[in-house]
Prior knowledge:
Blueprint: H1 2-27, E1 71-73, E2 79-81, H2 86-99, H3 102-109, H4 112-120, H5 126-134, H6 136-144, E3 156-161, E4 164-168, E5 181-187, E6 190-197
Antiparallel strand pairs: 1-2, 3-4, 4-5, 5-6
Amino acid sequence: MNLICTRTSTRLLIAFIVLGFSFCMSACTYERVVSRSSILSGIEGAESNIPEKKAARPLPDFLRTPDEGIRVVDEDGSVTLYAKSIRQLMAQIITTLQNGERELFVEQVLSQRTKDEFYERGLDPGLAFDELLKHYRDIGRLFYFMPMGEYTPGLYLETVGKNTFRLKISRIRNESLYWIGIDTVFEGNNYRLRWFVP
C-alpha cells in the first residue's frame, strides 16, 4: 500500500512540475523591435515613445546616381551617362539605340574590353552599335523578361570574370529568343555592356 501511495505521489509531483514548467514557458515571450515608424514620425516637435526607424545605410559615392538622373546634359551640350546598376545600363542601351547615338554608345555604354576586341581585329567598335541596332527588337524582347534588371524576381546575377557579371533567363522556357542574357563589366564606376548571351 505504501509503495502504491509513493508511486502515485511521485507521479503527481512530476505532473505538477511539468505543468508548472510549461505554464512558466508559455508566460515567457521574446519580442524584438527591429524598426518602427509612428504616425508622428517626421513631424517637427512631435514626441513619441516608439523608437525612430533607423535611416538606411547610404550608398558609397561611386554607386550613387546624380540627382539629375542617369543621363546628364552638361552646360556645353555633351551628355554623360551613369549606370550604377544593370537595370540602368539596360535603359542606356535602349535609349542610345533609339536616339541613334552611335558615338555616345561606343564611348559610354560599350565596355573597354569589348572595344579592345574590335580594335584587335582591326574593326571599328561602332560596328557593335550597328549590329545591336539590327537586333533592336530582340533586345526589347529580352529586356521584357527582365524588366527590373538584376532586381527581377527569379533572375540570378552570376559572376563570370573579374568585375564581369551575367544576368540571364532560362533558355528552356524562352527558346524563341535570340538572346537570353546580358554580360556586363563594372568599369570606371559604371556598368558597361560586354555583350549579349546567345
